[in-house]
């Protein structure tokens, strides 16, 4: 029987796989070579957690400590390359999977940061870094302005989910339930943003 | 009464605020959303000191150790967004403020590095990294070639100010005076470069 | 008489010089100022090893521990600026020198990583990071999609060389010979790729 820790670990691997697929697809749009695709997939999937670990001086960095992450990423990116030779990428399914990946990374990022830091503001920021920096590096390497700086409710969803997760810890709810509710906030905000095209106001300056 | 350490701390917060404003304005020119603007402001303001702290293995990183920095940045960027709805940014005042911010970051960066490293070349480089890397990351995220690699006497001013600051330590001058003189070198060079459009020679290769 | 460690050190300095030259030339194509050129040269030459050291928590970072690296980089980039005022860059010689630099960085990167990590996959990846990340940062700062993500057998050569170097350690060959053979694999693959225009298949998605 799976305990809640095993389920969190499986969710984490799922998040890594989803982000690797999103990285591989972005790389495909820039017509990189096969290894370039795998590199972008790796960076997208581990960039957020690696940045968090370096900032918190948490060593060994998570994917150095456990190679399962790299294995999952490589398999996911090779699968993506193979699959998209014959099929269109299932855009809608990927958006939902990406929302789930963001939710997992964010709440697990908050949990990991709590082990070493007590300041709530820092925990929320590290959670958002865990969820979003991989995609940000993916976009920088693809020579694009990072989507998370422009896109409808992405980093916002991570900040909100991490905040709710921390607030729930002040209640007497079961810790596992806190995790699930924190993730649901992220997923709900992302899917609502996609469905109704919600976005934060833009800030536009004349040159 | 404020001691010299308090004044340095206030100057540091001033530098952080100025760099946050410059980040927010750069973000506005790319029409990012509100959170994107705050993210760019944070990265611009803390990027240099964070890079220094990571390279020197100095933990906790300064803004993780003291959240006042983040608070100042968030206030400064929200103020910028609000202010520029009704007014043009005061370009000239900002250039002067930016020169002051560069001066503060550079000399305080040198001082912090001296606590852990004795090699003078490394101290000067870490001082320049503290002063310039935030703006460099801002430009990379905005999908531009970093200004400091092209612009008139910017990193140059930081290197010169840090060098003078270290040289003055060989004299019997008061340490506080060394700090002030180091900063004045940076400010003087920057303002002279702006006033008379000074720049280093360009290096131009044919493709 | 030089021992094998001294020769490795000299090779390492050679690699640093070659990468600094490649950085300076890339900067020249973007018409940066003189200090901008030196900054790009430094980042290209130390970016890979610095990333490796940060990820492995290996402090002090190699160029902070030994300023000879910076000295070599600054001399190499100033020489490049001076030389190209009067001559075309010797493209062919540079490609060969770059292959040698990649070989040195990769195998020495593997060797250094082995001192702190036993997992072979991580060692191979850190070797490739040591060899390629400097060039990747150079391209990001030059506002280009990194060449190593697109170019014929570059990161691939690093991965192959590091893998062969590790496999040879399972044999009874002399350790110095393993180093040489690992480097020859990298050099051979790079030169073959240049000579016959070999490249990995591209992965191209429709937008």
What is the structure about, briefly put?
3 copies of one chain form a homotrimer. Chain A is mainly α and 207 residues long.
Task: Give a verbal description of the structure.
Chains A, B, C: It is a multi-pass membrane protein. Chains A, B, C: It holds the Pfam family Gly_transporter. Chains A, B, C: Belongs to the UPF0126 family. 3 copies of one chain form a homotrimer. With 207 residues, chain A is mainly alpha-helical. The first copy, chain A, has one domain. Chain A is 74% helix and 0% strand. Chain A is built from 8 helices and no strands. The longest helix of chain A is centred in the N-terminal third of the chain and has 26 residues, at 4-29. The A-B interface holds A 54-57, 117, 119, 121-122, 125, 136, 140, 143-146, 148-152, 155-156, 159, 199-205, 207 and B 24-25, 27-37, 39-40, 50, 54, 57, 59-61, 64, 67, 70, 81, 84, 89, 140-143.
């Amino acid at each position: 029987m799976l305990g809640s820790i095993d389920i969190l670990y499986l969710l984490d691997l799922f998040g890594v796989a989803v982000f690797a697929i999103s990285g591989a697809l972005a790389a495909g749009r820039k017509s990189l070579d096969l290894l370039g695709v795998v590199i972008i997939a790796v960076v997208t999937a581990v960039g957020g957690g690696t940045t968090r670990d370096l900032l918190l001086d948490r060593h060994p960095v998570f994917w150095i400590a456990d190679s399962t992450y790299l294995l999952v990423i490589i398999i996911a990116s090779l699968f993506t390359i193979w699959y998209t030779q014959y099929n269109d990428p299932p855009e809608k399914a990927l958006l939902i999977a990406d929302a789930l990946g963001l939710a997992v990374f964010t709440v697990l990022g908050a949990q990991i940061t709590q082990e070493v830091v007590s300041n709530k503001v820092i925990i929320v920021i590290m959670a958002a870094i865990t969820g979003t920096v991989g995609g940000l590096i993916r976009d920088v390497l693809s020579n694009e302005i990072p989507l998370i700086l422009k896109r409808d409710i992405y980093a916002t969803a991570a900040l909100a989910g991490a905040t709710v997760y921390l607030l729930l810890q002040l209640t007497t709810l079961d810790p596992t339930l806190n995790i699930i509710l924190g993730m649901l906030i992220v997923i709900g905000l992302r899917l609502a943003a996609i469905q109704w095209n919600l976005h934060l106001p833009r800030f536009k300056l004349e040159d």
